[in-house]
Amino acid sequence: MRLERGEIPSTGMLALLICFVLGSSLLLTPGGSAGHDAWVAVLLGLAEGLLIAQVYAALTTRFPGKTLVEISDLVYGRCIGKIVAALFLWYLFHLGSLVLSNFEEMLSALILQNTPSLVISLGLILVCAYAVNEGIEVLVRCSYLLGVIIFATLIFDILAILPLFEVNRLLPVLDLPVPRLLLTAHGAASFPFLESVSFLMVMPFLNKSSEAGPSLMKGLLLSGVILAVIVARNSGVLGETTKILIYPSYQTVEMINILDIGARLEVLVFINVLTMGFIKVATLYYGTVLGVAQLFRLRTYKPLVLPIGILMLILSLQDAPNTPVMVDFAMRFYPFYSLPFQIVIPALTLILAHLRRPRREAAGP
Amino acid sequence: MIILIIMAFALAGLLIYPDLIRKQWWYELAVTSLFLIAGFILSLLLYLQVQLPYLSLVISHFLRGIAGQ
Fold it and tell me: How far is CA A354 from the centre of its chain?
């Protein structure tokens, strides 16, 4: 039974993917430990992301209209398929709670210092719950609208900060030892490009399944270029200090001063971060809810929206004791923790699908 | 605070259950209840300030163990 009746156009998926990838990477910019080479690390991470995304596209093309949960059932069989699907859903759920926790940490550290973290997270998760309950089409329409606003504010930010930008701060290029650069690039691939693995729960609802691959590639490429520009902007303005800052985009935009009247524009970063954060959390939340409903073979996913939202909220409060631990986890451990979910499960599923199909064909109808 | 937690879960139940009972979707009701009860128990544990492990620390320890550090 098809649990989601909505259909999305390829441009809708493109908008959703760009918002999703830019989501928390506008907040915790990837590749930061590479200093002035961070933009190179992001571009290398993008290349890795594009390579692995071919696997996601191939899976969607091979099993049109099926999510990874349904594909697992077909490829691994009912029992192992359920275990694989549960592992993948755990990743979506945990990632959703991590993103929620990131936004809560940022807001409570920078503007809402005296507000309890529960209140901040609750506000965001309730908005996400409403969007998830309305279905994938609503999420896509939100991403159209919010994407335009974000794009405009990003262009404004970049133009306004140009007087403070110095190309010398980006030199010398490729100063890092190659192994360290590659490690940082993998970090940039796993966060945020390979997080697009969650689109294996969204791509089946494209109105033309043949456009899944091209949309995924275009979305990753566009968001990767935007991200590289943002990272280069931060390095060009802040120099090597980007290495030690938790929120470099915030610090960069804070420095904008247009004729002494256009100051304190860091509010633009909050607009970007909150809107993109909403899209990212909602997409992961949607993937989890839909996946759990498919795993348990329910007739609708809607009754699960609130209970899973509550669990995601609780987990976000229990993710990390403080911001430094969260950042340490995101930078040092997350690239390895996410490896099985982002690369091993999709690649293994595709390989097994290729190996098992000839046998079925040989067995005949 | 405990009253607030009970009220929040009661409200969630009120929003979810009437529709499921009307349609007689008992299996869906059971699965939803499972998640809702899990959420309620975890909320109570957090409220009672029971020391639950932080997930990032657990995963970091696990990965360190694999790497032999």
Answer: 28
Per the CB < 8 A criterion, the answer to whether A15 and A279 are in contact is: no
Crossing angle between the packed helical segments A305-317 and A78-110, to the nearest 10 degrees: 60
> Facing residues of A206 across strands?
A8
CA-CA distance, B54 to B52, in Å (whole number)?
Answer: 7
- The complex's ipTM? 0.95
Contact with chain B for residue A90, Cβ under 8 A = no
The alpha-carbon gap from A206 to the nearest alpha carbon of chain B, in Å, equals 27
Which pLDDT band holds residue A365 (cuts at 50, 70, 90)? very low
Q: How far apart are CA B29 and CA B16, in angstroms?
A: 9
Side-chain-side CA neighbours of A292 within 13 Å: the count stands at: 23
pLDDT tens string A262-310: 677 878 888 888 888 899 999 999 999 999 999 999 999 999 999 999 9
Q: How far apart are the first and last CA of chain B?
A: 42
The model's pTM is: 0.94
**A336 at B interface, C-beta within 8 A:** yes
Does A94 reach chain B within 8 Å, measured CB to CB? yes
CB-CB contact of B9 with A313 (8 Å): no
Cα A159 from chain centroid? 26
